[in-house]
Amino acid sequence: MLKHLCLRALLVMALGFLFSGLAAWAQSSGSIEGVVKDPSGAAIAGATVEISYPVSGLHRETTTGADGSFRFTNVPFNPYHLVVTATGFASATQDVELRSAVPTTLGINLKIGAASSSVTVEANGGDLVENDTTFHTDVDRDLFTKVPLESPSSSVSSLVTLTTPGVAADSNGLFHGLGDHASNSFSVDGQPITDQQSKVFSNQIPMDSIQSLEVISGAPPAEFGDKTSLVIKVTTRSGLGINRPTGSINTSYGSFGTSNVSFDMAYGGPKWGNFIAVSGLQSGRFLDPPEFAVMHDKGNMENIFDRVDYQVSDKDTLHLNLGYTRSWFQTPNSFDAQNATAWNGLVADNGGLGPDGVPVGAQDQRSKIGTFNIAPTWTRLINANAVLNVGAFLRQDQYNYYPSDNPFADFTPDLQSQSIAQNRRLTNAGVRSDISYVKGIHNIKAGVTYQQTFLTENDHFAIVDPTLLASLTDAAGNPCQAPLVAPCSTLAPYDLTQPGGGSYYFFRGHTDVKELSLYLQDTITKNNWSFNLGLRGDIYNGLTSATQAEPRLGVAYNIKPTNTVLRVSYARTLETPFNENLVLASEGCSDAVVNALESALQGYPCINAPLSPGWRNEFHAGFQQAFGKYLVIDAEYIWKYTHNAYDFSVLGSTPITFPIEWVSSKIPGYAIRASVPQFHGFSAYVVMSSVAARFFTPQVSGIGATPGSTGVFRIDHDEVFNESTHLQYQPWKRGPWFGFNWRYDSGLVAGAVPFGDGTNPVDVSGLTPDQQFQAGLFCGNVRATPTMGISPNGLCDPSQFGSSLVQIPGAGTENDDKNPPRIAPRNLFDISVGHDNLFHGDRYKWSLRFTAINVTNKVALYNFLSTFSGTHYVTPRSETVELGFHF
């Protein structure tokens, strides 16, 4: 109690000190500026200034003005190698460490020397390592624009998955960071976004808007809170200082009728700038379906992003991000759902097509998501050592889920017993501020944030399974109607299959989650040492409340003769619940109808407890090693213990999911990234990881999971090993280029797969023939098909039983912790070939690109009947051709 009171008092005092201070998420970029002079002190106009960081792929150049000045804005925090050249002068080089929003100011004097018009920007081993306590991955636009990306509707997720170690790929743009279910957050130009960003929850920012990414996989510094398994810091593109309009128009067409049109342009002047990106996408495979074949999977997305920068004075700058995205998409059908021919005698046979092209009797569930974002920021340069940022943000996801027009079409045996609709709104509003101070060995940051998340949930459902309820009549044989008489169930009035029909049940929920956060941290650099000392405080007040003081510590040591950096770090974090469907998952079990439905579907009582914030201790140890200028390896070992660990459960075959909470989890693992900076047109990187996600029962809150065994189990984001390798080659600077991906996944833990006990036949009767087919099951030489199972009675001799798509433990060897069923390993290969300047133009350029995903057409699963997402297949072979015009 005393700790809580002290923390509250500290936060109140901080609000007084930081009168405008309201943020825990600092800016993700800064500026490098300076003046170039000759030996006499006179300014040199027209000198070329270049900065580069080979690991991220960033390279920029500019020329000095009449007064010899230069400026690079919107530069991500990293070490940079700077080179200055001018005709008649010897070139000058300098290493610049940018770690703060405080401008880095340089004075560069050139010596008289041989005339030189250009110089090759070369890096050495010392330029490739960072004396940083936090394990992270840097990716600049110059690198990721040539990476073949799998998902056109979730391209940001694809980029993070392919370039970052410690990430397990999942369906529909979902990725599991370091063993946690989607415990990821974005910081977009300093704006915190901690809500889920996979395609079935929200709309992601467009790839065209991103200048660079920094993905933090290590122990998060004190400035980051909430969901911190992965923190993705996004720096968006800017038009500040771009005097001539620059941009591109791109159009593409590919497999599954996927087409895309996009336009982006940056323009401005020394004091202002605007960047705008507009795009539209439509596809016949918008989401990852439960079959390798594609059925009922159309979708489209329209996106607009605008960033405005205006320098009011030498000390004041205004920045505004605006965005709106709308997406509409069908819920992909399985063979069962596509051919729902009178499962219950109430659905018309599939004998033709409806007016929208959907087969009569097939499920026709759809979703629509509208997302808008407004985020203004004011930056004040207090003096040469201090910068203040003050901002606000308003972001909303409006999610609508529509059932089939014929509610009985939504019934699928053993998968979905109800027809459901949802109208859900998640609005996040807040104000933020941070102040940065750099002096001597200290780089200090302090900030506060206050944010409120407004959740509104409207759900209605009705039962369409005639076998779900034991009785639809009372003891006298009359249809169940209020007042209910035994043996009528509480659910009887909402069963549409009962005599005379039923009605829909409506659930309405609302809550307002408030969160106040404060942090103070100092990065101390002394000789070869770097220390990160921080303290964060969070007060969370939603359906439940929590207060947490969170120390963050990190130490790094740079062994300069060998270009080696050693580091260790620790973080205490407050883990906040997922906001999506939080009200129903927390309060639904106190509702008699929802409780009864959950009990009927799962066969055990609903857990009547709200989701509560948890806490985590995590430890990291790692190193970074450069081998000359040709290779740098970054590796980290992670160990995390979480009290109150989160996951999600899926509702039938819908994209609607509910958060659930387990008593604890232990997650150990490692992550490695090896990078080859560009060398004679060739560059490459490899990311790999192994993460164990061990969760402990009991489930303490939430809707939808099953009890399973007691003790410890591996959850469905546990993966023994995965890796992604990207190779890129451009033999001539103005010539064609080639990109190649090799993706290997050993397989996530699978869902409800049958397995033998060593003595009795394996029983698969709990799966429909189509589900047996989805899992690739076989019994001897009989393989399941969408309409015929592996045996008439669902039984198979253990010696004859197996799967081509799932690793099923041998008879009698299954163990939820040591030997669970897993998705079978897969190797996927992608290629991309392009030319960025087909006709060798100077100002106007045409580009052409061909991309092929899964070139071997590998049939493989992301997951099978997983608690979170059900069943989904990876993308079949798909080809795309893109034509672009650049100005």
Mind explaining what this structure looks like?
The chain is mainly beta. The protein contains 8 helices and 47 strands. The strands form 9 sheets. It has a 22-stranded antiparallel beta barrel. A 5-stranded mixed β-sheet has the order 8-13-14-11-12. Strands 3-2-5-6 form a 4-stranded antiparallel β-sheet. A hairpin with a 4-residue loop joins β26 and β27 (564-575).
How many β-strands, per DSSP? 47
**Chain-averaged pLDDT:** 89
How much of the residues is beta strand, in percent?
over 45%
Radius of gyration, rounded? 28 Å
Tell me the distance between the termini.
62 Å
Count of DSSP H/I helices: 8
Largest sheet: 22 strands, antiparallel, barrel
Q: Which structural class is indicated by helix and strand composition?
A: mainly beta
C-alpha geometry: globular
Low-confidence stretches: 1-26, 115-120, 342-351
Considering DSSP H and I runs of 4 or more, what fraction of the residues is helical?
A: under 10%
